[in-house]
C-alpha cells in the first residue's frame, strides 16, 4: 500500500504523523509525508517528505486571507502533482492547515482518505473535510455537542498517537516540577514558573521555554533551583525527572503527560481556536488525572501546587488515572483500521 500522509508543521501534528508513518512502514507500506516548511524540519531522513506551500487562513486580516488563498491554490496544485507522481492508494490527513490542500486534492482525484483529530473539539480542517472521509480517528473523546451528524457517524476514538520513546515504562516519580507550554512554549507559563521558583526555593523547577522566549528568560537573574530548556526532541528525559507538571492543554503534550502518569495542573491557552484546550483539560480533570485552572485564576496555581506536593496519595491516584485514560497503541490500532477499510 502506498500512503500519502499530510500534516501541519507544529509538534502537535507532526509528531503523531511521524509515529504513524513509522508504524505503516513497519507493516510494509510505502509512505510519503507532505507538510509545510516548519514540519519538514522535524522529519529525519528515514521518512520521505515533500514540502507544500501553506499558511494559516482562519481569524486573520483580509490581506493575510488573500495570501493564504494564493498559498492554498499553490498547495493544492503541488498536491495534485505529487499524487500523480507518487500514486498513493490512500491519503491520511493528520490535521493542521497544511493538510487542507492535500485532502482537497485527494477528493478531486477520487482517492479514499482518513482523518486524525487530536483535540476534543474537532478542528476546522476536520469539519470542512469530514464528508468524504472514510473514518475520523479522535485522540480525545469529542466534547459534547461538538460533532455534526456526519462527523458523529465517522468518529472512532483511538487515543492520540504517541511516539514510543516518550512513554516511560514503569516510570518512577521524579523530584522536579516541570513547566511546559507545548512545542512552542508559553510566555505566561514561563513567567509563572520563574515566579514560583523564586517563591518556592526548596523545590526544583524545569521550564521548557520554547525557542521564542529562551533568550528573554535566560536574561533574568539566575536561580539555583531553576533549569531552563529551550527545546527538546526527547521530552521523555524531562518526564523522567518530573514529580508534577504545570502545562497548557494541547492534545499531544497533555496525552504524553497522562501516559507517563505525571499529575498535572493545566492552564489552557484562553485564545485557542474553539477553546479546544479547555475541553481537553476538562476531559483529564473529570477523570481525576489533572487539575484545571483557567488562566484568569492563575494565582490559584501556587496553592494547588503546594497541596499536590504535600499529598503523595493524591499524586499516586492522579498518576493511575492518567495512565488509564490514554492508550499507547493508537498508531497500531489506526493502521489496522485503515488496512481493514481498504481491504473490505
Keywords, please?
about 45% helix; about 350 residues; Rossmann fold; 14 helices; seven-stranded parallel sheet; alpha/beta; single chain
Number of domains: 2
Proportion in helices: 40-55%
Describe the global form: globular
Low-confidence stretches: none
Using the 3D structure, state the CATH architecture of the largest domain. 3-Layer(aba) Sandwich
- Overall structural class, as computed from helix and strand content, comes to alpha/beta
Q: For the record, what CATH class of the largest domain applies?
A: Alpha Beta
Mean pLDDT: 94
Number-wise, the strands total 13
In short:
By secondary structure, the protein is α/β, with parallel strands linked by helices. It is built from 14 helices and 13 strands.
Task: Report what the structure shows.
- The protein is an alpha/beta fold.
- The chain folds into two domains: 2-162 and 328-343, Glycogen Phosphorylase B (Rossmann fold), CATH 3.40.50.2000; 165-325, Glycogen Phosphorylase B (Rossmann fold).
- It has helices at 11-26, 37-40, 62-86, 100-109, 124-129, 149-154, 187-199, 211-218, 236-239, 251-259, 276-286, 300-309, 312-325, 330-343; strands at 2-6, 30-35, 49-51, 90-93, 113-117, 136-138, 155-157, 176-180, 204-208, 226-229, 242-247, 264-266, 290-292.
- The strands form two sheets. It has a seven-stranded parallel β-sheet with strand order 3-2-1-4-5-6-7, sandwiched between helices.
- Strand 5 (113-117), helix 5 (124-129) and strand 6 form a beta-alpha-beta unit.
- Helix 3 packs across helix 4.
- The longest helix has 25 residues, at 62-86.
- The two termini are 14 Å apart.
